Fold this protein.
Amino acid sequence: MIKTIAIIIVIIATIFLLLYYNNSSKLELEDKGVTIEVNKQTLFIEASHLKMRPITFSNLTVFQTKLSNGTYYEVATCDSLYEFNHNTKHVIRTIFEAKKIDELFNIGGVHALRVTLKNRQVINMFVHDNDGKTLKIFYGIPFEEYSRSVKKIMGKTFQEFSIGGMFELPTAMTKWNEKHNNFDGVIQSIDY
């Protein structure tokens, strides 16, 4: 009897924690910009939509939106029989063909990452990977705005980081392709 009550309490506590962490974060493209919610902090980066381009594969669909401030917002969604690799840093390293990734925080499914490409170019980004089926990436954020946003979210735990990512991206930097999707481990079959 006591064992059963203890198990029920653990299950209820787990459900409440999952609900709390799943609802505590968001990265959404809206009409006038991008909203980032983490740790009950809400940030809004203003920008209008310039151009949206769909990229479709047999098992993945990506909507890539260029914004007026030189940033990009991408939403990638897996087919029903697939999901993204659970290691978000691996996925980002692969689709950006990156040399190095620094994670500033990972809170409630939202990651603040600084991606260094092979040409040493630094890209500041926020990534939301809450459900395994959808990956949202907001990148190309200028250093000053990114630093201010990360500092607001992290509060007292914030540590300064090196300057980088102060340019407007001329083109989307992600390299979505069949090889990365199927052979480099970006997505995986649910049957694994």
Observations:
- DSSP finds four helices and twelve strands in the chain.
- The chain has a mean pLDDT of 85.
- The longest helix spans residues 2-23.
- The chain has one domain: 2-189.
